[in-house]
Amino acid sequence: MIIDIVIARVDERLIHGQIVNEWIQKLRPTHLLIVDYELLHDPFMSNIYKAMAPFWVEVHILSPKDAYQFFCKGGNLDAKVFLLARKPDMYEELIDHGADISEIVLAEKKYMPNKRKAAIESKIAINHLLDKGVRIVIQEFPNEESFVVKKYKIENTEERE
User: Fold this and answer.
1) Burial call 4-29: b when 16+ CB within 10 Å, e when fewer
2) Residue 115 pLDDT > 70, yes or no?
């Protein structure tokens, strides 16, 4: 069994033209795992997202725990997995379940220090991921240079445990 995570990406829009036409075409995954509680409980939107993926990519919408189980119970599956989540906290939870994710790619430049501000919850999750040794970068397109994210300074806010 070989399950290779080709990318773990945070993109609030999930599947859209840039994912299908740029990232999936370049990385050629066999599976797309969307880690998202909201979609998990919305069959209509889940089906829409599944239909947007290329026919050769098997799409699963899972909780972080079930995504980890996918990796553990892959059986004799040879898979190149594209992980996708709306927010960094999904990866924090996935790693807490035991998943081995060494790098996370943030899609949006709002996470850059001098750009539009990211939500405090996302900054806290990113700090926790960095503390766990996960490399976090910002990269909009696969052919552009990535920007390494450093730990955020969070003032006047208690970090969640």
Assistant:
1) ebbbbbbbeebbeeebeeebbeeeeb
2) no
